[in-house]
Design a protein that fits this description.
Layout: E1 2-3, H1 5-16, E2 35-40, E3 48-54, E4 62-66, E5 84-91, E6 99-103, E7 106-110, E8 115-123, E9 146-148, E10 151-154, E11 162-163, E12 171-178, E13 182-185, E14 188-194, E15 200-207, H2 210-214, E16 218-221, E17 224-230, E18 233-240, H3 248-266, E19 274-282, E20 293-297, E21 300-306, H4 311-326, H5 338-341, H6 354-371, H7 377-392, H8 400-405, H9 422-437, H10 444-454, H11 466-473, H12 476-487, H13 494-500, E22 503-512, E23 516-517, E24 520-521, E25 523-526, E26 531-534, H14 542-546, E27 554-558, E28 561-562, H15 568-576, E29 583-590, E30 593-600, E31 604-613, H16 619-630
Parallel strand pairs: 2-12, 18-19, 19-21
Antiparallel strand pairs: 1-20, 2-3, 3-8, 4-7, 4-11, 5-8, 6-7, 9-10, 10-16, 12-15, 13-16, 14-15, 17-18, 20-21, 22-31, 23-24, 25-26, 27-28, 27-29, 29-30
Helix pairs in contact: 1-15, 3-4, 3-6, 4-6, 6-7, 6-9, 9-12, 9-16, 11-12
């Protein structure tokens, strides 16, 4: 998952004021495969979709049906059972059976030997969003669901549940939709039928097990769809832009260039025949999604971004977000633990190795751009320094493996965002160490390829033995680093690693945006007054300092929009995209007096450390740097 920097940082700002397997018992049921499930998009009632599930005959008196409490890749509680209404169970004569709701996501059905089917209505999550799902109250938008006349975001974990004893059973999923809809999904289509009047189409899909239901989202509706090939991988890009501001054809140009570069970087790793990109562009209205970023699946990603973005800003965001998600075909698709392979959607356990799943993935998404010539070295260095800056504001002495294993609970949950910051930096340090140890011939990518060959998508590793295994496959220095800085609590001295590559830090004036100083947020939530105020750091942001903003000023209004905690993520996301030359008007409250800043944006700068090539670097250091960045 990749929560956008702003979504997660602002959410953190507001909040501080983004396994065991169960085997089917032989006496539980007379197995009918597949379990037949139907979603009818043509009979929407009060913005809800009807769902029916026919599991086959049970041979026990009680069974439990669940919607996921947690879904893979989110590392937070979603409680999709909250969005289910009018849950009923029926016998073969159409009579209702006794049903007891035993918790938010679970229903216990009595007289299950008579059970023919269950039926219920599903609300969507987009309509209920307040802060984009950060903090657990609503699912993160890319994990959520949308039900509207022109678009359906079918993250199937929000519609289809499972019986405890049948998670490994096959599913047949029928989706009934208006004939004029476009529909995209990587699930295997086994049948398509058009109604006699030509008004509706029923598409039937096959899923080998419940995991494949949750792992294959769908888009239905008025979509703009483009396809292209990256090596042997078919890429399907599905775009929903409510006002048609952005087209799939234009986005395809950016995605194709980027993904060709990714494939060139990855080389022989090729874990999927098809990869889907689902892009929902939020129009910013009251019921539009507000959690910007993406959620990865094994062979697809769902992306939510603001439709108001200019073309260049959208292109940059898509490169950053989708490149991260696409690299998940390495991990966890090809390299993952038992916790991932045998995921429990109700009471999950989590791997200790988020530094690998999310951290190394984020590192790949950053490194490949300079490796393939999409960005210059200075821009790569700037991104690395931004991650160091952001990571420094978090708990740098917390064990990363301990945090990963307990990511749903505090004090660990609030540190999750660090997997994209320090996690990526951990990947960088391992990469530099391996380049040094091997004379430039091996790096973190070669390690992941070796792990992929050893395990692969159908063979999970044992969580407690991964670091030992990595050490055997690499060098003692890698094991020492991991045990000291990832398992252990010792902060990393990044200067030591930069020195190996002939780099040094230099204090300078650096470009920044209008709500951060080199990655550090310059606003804070004031719980006492329910306002959002500038921090002391506003004095070091040249634009605001030159225009008279002061620490503790409350931000009341931005370009005519009154700022509240509820819309802060959306407003600040817009401010994050501000570019020099734009006319803006911001109203502040300073001790009860209104202060108005109405001006044209100029480039903002702040003070900070930048990473530069050391003019006194040795030839060996230069060669290591070349192998690191271009090898």
């Amino acid at each position: 998952m990749n929560k956008s920097i702003l979504t997660t940082a602002i959410a953190a700002l507001l909040l501080t004021s983004c396994s065991t397997t169960k085997k089917t018992g032989v006496n539980d049921l007379a197995v009918q495969t597949p379990i037949e499930t139907t979603l009818n998009l043509t009979t929407i009632n009060d913005d809800k979709v009807p769902v029916t599930v026919n599991p086959g005959r049970f041979t026990v008196e009680k069974v439990t049906y669940r919607l996921p409490r947690v879904v893979q890749g989110t590392y937070s509680v979603s409680d999709f059972g909250k969005y289910i209404d009018d849950f009923k169970a029926y016998d073969y004569n159409g009579n209702e059976l006794p049903v007891k709701k035993i918790d938010t996501n679970s229903w216990e059905i009595s007289e299950a030997k008579k059970l023919d089917k269950v039926a219920y209505w599903v609300n969507d999550t987009f309509d209920m969003e307040v802060t984009g799902g950060i903090g657990g109250e609503i699912p993160f938008s890319p994990a959520g669901t949308n039900i509207e006349a022109t678009n359906y975001v079918l993250n199937l974990h929000g519609f289809v549940g499972y019986f405890d004893s049948l998670k490994k059973n096959q599913y047949k999923l029928n989706v009934i939709s208006p004939a004029g809809f476009k529909r995209t999904s990587a699930l295997q289509v086994v049948d398509t039928k058009t109604s006699e009047d030509g008004a509706t189409v029923t598409s039937s899909y096959f899923a080998p097990r419940y995991f494949d239901i949750t792992d294959n989202p769908m888009f239905y509706g008025e979509l703009d769809v483009e396809e292209f090939k990256v090596g042997d991988i078919k890429i399907v890009l599905s775009v929903y832009s409510p006002t048609k501001k952005h087209s799939a054809a234009k986005i395809k140009e950016v995605m194709e260039k980027m993904m060709q570069a990714q494939k060139a970087y990855l080389g022989s790793i090729n874990s999927t025949a098809r990869y889907d990109i689902y892009l929902y562009l939020s129009d910013g209205t009251e019921k539009a999604p507000k959690g910007f970023g993406a959620l990865e699946h094994h062979t697809s990603t769902v992306v939510v971004l603001p439709e108001a973005m200019p073309d260049n800003a959208l292109a940059k965001s898509m490169i950053d977000v989708v490149s991260h998600e696409f690299f998940h075909i390495v991990t966890p698709l090809s390299v993952h633990s038992e916790d991932v392979h045998y995921f429990d959607y109700n009471q999950p356990t989590f791997s200790k190795h988020l530094w690998m799943y999310e951290g190394i993935t984020e590192y790949f998404a950053t490194l490949f751009q300079v490796n393939q010539g999409l960005v210059k070295e200075d821009e790569f260095y700037s991104k690395i320094m931004g991650k160091i800056k952001t990571a420094s504001s978090m708990n740098d002495t917390m064990s990363f493996t301990e945090m990963s294993e307990n990511v749903l609970d505090e004090p660990y949950a609030s540190q999750y965002y660090n997997v994209y910051q320090k996690g990526a930096l951990i990947g960088m340090c391992i990469d530099i160490l391996m380049r040094e140890e091997s004379g430039g011939n091996r790096g973190i990518l070669s390690l992941m390829k070796e792990l992929s060959l050893k395990y692969g998508k159908n063979k999970p590793f044992e969580d407690d033995h991964l670091i030992e295994e990595i050490t055997k496959m690499t060098y003692p220095s890698i094991g020492e680093f991991l045990n000291t800085h990832v398992v252990g609590t010792t902060p990393i001295n990044y200067n030591e690693f930069f020195a190996k590559a002939g780099l040094m830090l230099e204090e300078s004036k650096i470009k920044t945006n209008y709500i951060q100083n080199n990655g550090a947020i310059i606003v804070r939530a004031d719980e006492a007054t329910q306002t959002i105020r500038f921090r002391e750091a506003v004095k070091d942001n040249s634009f605001w300092a030159e225009n008279g903003a002061q620490p503790n000023d409350a931000i009341k209004e931005v370009d005519g929009v009154v700022l509240t905690k509820e819309n802060a993520n959306q407003v600040f996301s817009q401010m994050f995209m501000w570019q020099p030359g734009k006319e803006v008007e911001v109203k502040l409250d300073r001790n009860g007096k209104e202060v108005v800043i109405k001006t044209i944006l100029t480039q903002s700068y702040t003070k900070g450390s930048s990473l530069k090539e050391n003019p006194n670097a040795t030839q060996k250091q230069k060669e290591l740097r070349q192998a690191w960045l271009k090898g």
